Amino acid sequence: MDDLRRRTEREVEALNEKFQRELRLEKERTEKVAEKVTKDFEEQLEHMEKAHKELLHDQERQIRGELEEERNKRSREIQELAAQSTLRLQETSQDLERKAREADDVRRERDETAAALQREKSLRTSLEDKLTEASANNMTLETANRAMKAKIDFLESDNQAQSNSFADLHRLKQEAEEAMNVALEKLRTEETLRRKLHNQVQELKGNIRVMCRVRPASDSEAEDAAKIAFPDAELDCKEVTVQGPEKTSALGVVTTSNNAFSFDRVFAPASHNAEIFEEISQLVQSALDGYNVCIFCYGQTGSGKTFTMSSVDGMIPRATAQIYSEAQRLAEKGWTYKMEGSFVEVYNENLNDLLGKAEELDKKKLEIRHDLQKKTTTITDITTVELDSADRVEEIMQRAAANRTVAATKANSRSSRSHSVFILKLIGENSMTGERSEGTLNLVDLAGSERLAHSQAAGDRLKETQNINKSLSCLGDVIGALGQGKEGTHIPYRNSKLTYLLQNSLGGNSKTLMFVMISPLQAHLSETLTSLKFATKVHNTHIGTAKKQSKVKE
Ligand SMILES: Nc1ncnc2c1ncn2[C@@H]1O[C@H](COP(=O)(O)OP(=O)(O)OP(=O)(O)O)[C@@H](O)[C@H]1O
């Protein structure tokens, strides 16, 4: 049993070993097969992958190509569409333009038709009027015809009477012509005489006249009114009284002085520019007659100088209007006039062309030249405007005002800090009598006369004030020296630009009118009294002929 069992065990063992060996071999074989299969499969996979990639690539390329083609096709289509729509747009806008043109044409035609209709209507009315007139004329002509026929019958019946009446008519005509020539000659002589007499009257009135104007207080100023009275207001108004400031004596008594002034004329606050002009119009006439005339407006800032001189109805526009109408009247007497205007400004002792370019103010140098023989003055490089119509004055004033506005600074209203001179040259010629006249009218708006102590000025402003004071006092000195009336007296014209500019229009035969402008306010009392005293000094000066003197009564 044991042997059997051992033999069986050995056989089982041998079988087991054999089985293990065969298993191992089988396993190795299987592994080899599996390895080969795996490799084959991988190769096959790789191959397939490659083939697939190529296929994909080909397909992508193909799709891209198709896409590109599609895009090109679409963009071509879009371009075509855009071109078509542009074309359509152009056609539409051309259409629109054509339609607008047609509408314009229609409108024009309609307007023309309306105008033609209107013309037709007025033509018809005028034809109807003419027809009425013609029938009236016809009737008159028929009456005249009948009268003529009667006359012809009469004349034919009496030939001798006819030639007699013809000779009578001829003689009468000659007499009428002679009378007319005598009248014309008389008219011309009378004009020459009028000029002489006018000048004599002006000289009798005094070659220097001083007038005073007190401006009205505005509503807001009414409470600050100074005590100014016009004692002879009902008569010819030549006096003005101003109550001075209160003074307290050492004993504590308060007094006020009453200052009385008299001038050639005093204008109370209610006066209008038209009344003022009535007084100066005679001097404007003198300028037309060939005299040099200076009209000044003097006074502190805000006293009414510009209102009187250059406002819309001021002296400058009124004087030029008078000159135009006078020149027309004188044309009947053989006079033709040439009028030239210029507008200058004296600022800081510098002469500026107010009609030139604004940027040249204070830069361009203007020179004053005098012809002492002819008593004429010229300024180099000055803008001169021929005043061939009354409207030109307005244009000149606007140009000057605009230039001054440009030149003004914040702290400096240029017009109150400078003197302006409107110069009107009037050259007249009489072709019938051979007479010639050359007069100049200077209309001067002086700078504000306030004194240095009151203006509290410094810097540029101080220089301006000093220059203003200097030129105003030079003006007083020149007038004072002229007033001495002695031959050979030195007249200090050269001491200021203003007096030098006006040299030929101050003194001699020339006429001067000084308007002193007065503010009605108590706050300006001190300046008012100073202005009135200055004006009195000028008024007491007599140039040329004797005239009544007046004094300051205190
Ligand atoms: N007669 C008047 N009637 C009514 N208003 C006047 C009259 N005079 C002056 N005014 C007014 O008073 C104000 C000051 O006048 P204006 O400007 O003429 O003074 P001005 O002396 O020229 O001053 P400035 O020296 O500053 O130029 C202005 O508003 C002006 O309209």
How would you describe the overall organization of this protein?
The structure is a single chain. By secondary structure, this protein is an alpha/beta fold. Among the domains are: 14-137; 206-226 and 273-472 and 510-536, Kinesin. Helices cover 56% and strands 17% of the residues. It has ten helices and 14 strands. The chain has helices at residues 2-157, 159-205, 273-288, 305-310, 315-331, 391-407, 452-455, 459-484, 497-501, 525-539, and strands spanning 208-214, 228-229, 239-248, 254-262, 265-267, 292-298, 335-347, 350-353, 368-371, 376-379, 385-386, 419-430, 436-445, 511-518. Strands 1, 5, 6, 7, 8, 11, 12, 13 and 14 form a nine-stranded mixed β-sheet that branches. Strands 2-3-4 form a three-stranded antiparallel β-sheet, covered by helices on one side. It has a two-stranded antiparallel ribbon with strand order 9-10. The chain starts with a helix and ends in a 15-residue tail after the last helix. Mean pLDDT is 85; it is low at 544-554.
Topology:
Blueprint: H1 2-157, H2 159-205, E1 208-214, E2 228-229, E3 239-248, E4 254-262, E5 265-267, H3 273-288, E6 292-298, H4 305-310, H5 315-331, E7 335-347, E8 350-353, E9 368-371, E10 376-379, E11 385-386, H6 391-407, E12 419-430, E13 436-445, H7 452-455, H8 459-484, H9 497-501, E14 511-518, H10 525-539
The structure holds adenosine-5'-triphosphate (ATP).
Adenosine-5'-triphosphate binds next to helix 4.
Radius of gyration: 55 Å
State the shape: elongated
How many β-strand runs? 14
Counting helices, strands and paired strands, the structural category is alpha/beta
CATH-defined topology of the domain at 206-226 and 273-472 and 510-536: Kinesin
The CATH superfamily label of the domain at 206-226 and 273-472 and 510-536 reads Kinesin motor domain
Total number of helical segments? 10
N-to-C series of helices and strands: HHEEEEEHEHHEEEEEHEEHHHEH
**What is the makeup of the main sheet?**
9 strands, mixed
